[in-house]
Amino acid sequence: MRSVLLTGFAFCAAVFAQNAAVDKFVTTQYPISKAGVLANIGPSGSKSSGAKAGVVIASPSRSDPDYLFTWARDSGLVLKTVIDLYTRGEDNSLRTTIDQYVASQAIQQRVSNPSGSISTGGLGEPKFNIDLSAFTGGWGRPQRDGPALRATALIAYGNWLVAHSNSSYAKSTLWPIIKLDLDYVASTWNLTGFDLWEEVNSSSYFTSAVQHRALREGAAFATKIGQTSVVSRYNTQAANVLCFMQSYWNPTAGYMTSNTGGGRSGKDANTALASVHTFDPAAGCDPVTFQPCSDKALSSLKVYVDSFRSIYAINSGIPSSAAVATGRYSEDVYYGGNPWYLTTTIVAEQLYDALYVWKQQRSLTVTSTSLAFFQQLVPSAAIGTYPSTSATFTTLTNAVKNYADGFLAIVAKYTPSNGALAEQYTRAAGVPISARDLTWSYAASLTAFSARKGIVPNSWGAKGVVVPKVCGTEGGGTVQVTFKVDATTVYGENIFLTGSLPSLQNWSPDTALPLSSDNYPTWSITVSLPASQNFEYKFIRKYNSAITWESDPNRLQTTPASGTYTFYDTWR
């Protein structure tokens, strides 16, 4: 009995010590992280020399690696953090920074770049030079999460402006930027693109999730400011994205697969980031929108975290019930494949968000899907719903809180004494590596600190959404499009067409559309396609049972808003 009591006292002492250490870290790191964010925003940020006003640099690192660029995704996430600080009344001095960002994005959207112009796919360009000129080097493009994240940030600002009697600015200045982004999202969400790590070209859960959110809240914001003509389309496409999001779930292994391609396991910080950045405190523990406390999100988080327990030396000897350092994905080899500050932080933030909801709804439910997550922390956990007045609720929530604090304790352990947050810390010794003063690392720490305090973002409309009974990938009217391709063939060989739309057979070579050879060597077919729709396609050859695809990349086109159109191509 004495040994049991001593063990219990030792455990309680360890928990108390960890909580106290995390309290201290949050208190000291918060102002450092906030200053780190602002230092990387032009023109007056101390580490953003050369950046135009409102431009967010990824890092002041100019070599090994060179991150002195501005990314649409990183900037959207960072400014959402800044906007939340301002609209919550935590720092009224941030208004100028926000307005400068707005002005910079109005310019950036119109910069022609390797992904296209403003009307031909250029909004999917991932990064620009910090003077807002186009970056023309080789890169993983397009990336389709940036427009959605920028729209979400500006909608948050717009909602605050409307609530504070400034609808005119919201409508005249913000809305044109937001609408361009949402129109792009509505037209291209069903096309492939590079993931948030810029490595895999496929569909990506993070991208789909933030696109769904942007369209859903975009429709509500449009209604609020009287721009109702777009509402039906945005809502329709939001429902279609939500339907598509369900296809990422791996029910056998119990996690949300990060990408539909790439040849990896799919266990990736991608999905935890998606859960946090689409958190809606009014949506409860909804699994459809992958809310942080949903059984699917908790199960997926466990699978993701566990994938790092045995591969990093700094995680050696840590029990399975305790926090560990986490990276992007276990197969990572970038800079040797290390834990990242922001990916370790995001685990804590998801758990803090979950705790907030459980306490607000005064209950916690353990399902067969989330049981393994809870049993990892409390072995006696069982399936059931536990009210906040029960001892089980207290035991489980305390365990989750301690587990969440453990991830911040890991970050604290490997943060240098000056509080500077790089991109990564080494898997062997926890030493900062790769880009220094990463803006996203600083912003991620700020949002996690707020979540720990019970400060949560505003609702964006996830409550009560349902997956449509019939899911689609297209919306709006249709147009007649003729495809013509010059291709010489041998006798018995034929040309077919397939692509990214259901009307183009969703890339299926088996059901690809046959072209006519009436005007050989020009082959042609006329197809009814959705209007104002970006899409990808390729021609294929079929000869007996052999199928030959055109060479990469996929062809990309946009259908007209009305009428008819002809695309002319040559086999490659």
UniProtKB/TrEMBL annotation:
Matches recorded under SUPFAM superfamilies: Six-hairpin glycosidases, Starch-binding domain-like
Biological processes annotated in GO: polysaccharide catabolic process
Ranges for domain CBM20: 473-572
The protein's enzyme class: hydrolase
Keywords, ordered alphabetically: Carbohydrate metabolism, Glycoprotein, Glycosidase, Hydrolase, Polysaccharide degradation, Signal
Assigned EC number: 3.2.1.3
Pfam families, per database record: CBM_20, Glyco_hydro_15
GO MF assignments: glucan 1,4-alpha-glucosidase activity; starch binding
Keyword Transit peptide: no
Signal sequence extent: 1-17
Active site, per annotation: 195, 198
Gene Ontology, cellular component aspect: fungal-type vacuole
Catalysed reaction equations from the record: Hydrolysis of terminal (1->4)-linked alpha-D-glucose residues successively from non-reducing ends of the chains with release of beta-D-glucose
InterPro entries (alphabetical): 6-hairpin_glycosidase_sf, 6hp_glycosidase-like_sf, Carb-bd-like_fold, CBM20, GH15-like, Glucoamylase, Glucoamylase_active_site, Glucoamylase_SBD
Annotated binding of substrate, by residue: 139
Keyword Nucleus among record annotations: no
PANTHER family per record: GLUCOAMYLASE, TREHALASE
Family of the protein in this entry: Belongs to the glycosyl hydrolase 15 family.
Protein name as annotated: Glucoamylase
Natural source organism: Hebeloma cylindrosporum
